[in-house]
Amino acid sequence: MSKKVLILSGSPRRGGNSDFLCDAFMKGAQEAGHDVEKIFINDKKISYCRACYVCRHTHKCFQKDDMTEILDKMIEADVLVLASPVYFYAIAGQVKTMLDRTLPRWTELKNKEFYYILTAAEDSEAIMQRSLECFRGFADCFAGIEEKGVILAHGLYEKGEDINSPYEKQSYEMGKNV
């Protein structure tokens, strides 16, 4: 059965390591017959949540930016792929800003499969756990979610270091097995 897959690439570098692994995931998922879209978050205008809570009553944010469209796509998707480089042992700021902005319709983000892709210059998976827990904490807010796969690609600093790496194959296979 074909699924609707939304990849949210949080790399600030187009073609950077986490973005590249998103492309490998996308290729695998497309070859498996799924409807796949990748959003490069850095290209989008997403303002910070103002914690005004107007959205509690309207289910819409007062801010007019790209997040409305992204949130619609997140809700429509069967599968969400969250990807980020690890910066100072945390996810990239643009990813966190996007996650915070799901507040107006967070109760609609349910019954999804989640996949996580994280890249780091550090040579240890252990330091990546904080970032992974951030993604998991986000997903734990929703009903009926299922974590389906995780890639912790460590030891990658320069753009392109993951080309022909085991992480590229892992990402492709994970996408193929959605």
From TrEMBL:
<dbReference type="GO" id="GO:0016491">
    <property type="term" value="F:oxidoreductase activity"/>
</dbReference>
<dbReference type="Pfam" id="PF03358">
    <property type="entry name" value="FMN_red"/>
</dbReference>
<keyword id="KW-0285">Flavoprotein</keyword>
<feature type="domain" description="NADPH-dependent FMN reductase-like">
    <location>
        <begin position="4"/>
        <end position="123"/>
    </location>
</feature>
<dbReference type="InterPro" id="IPR051796">
    <property type="entry name" value="ISF_SsuE-like"/>
</dbReference>
<protein>
    <submittedName>
        <fullName>Multimeric flavodoxin WrbA</fullName>
    </submittedName>
</protein>
<dbReference type="InterPro" id="IPR005025">
    <property type="entry name" value="FMN_Rdtase-like_dom"/>
</dbReference>
<keyword id="KW-0288">FMN</keyword>
<dbReference type="InterPro" id="IPR029039">
    <property type="entry name" value="Flavoprotein-like_sf"/>
</dbReference>
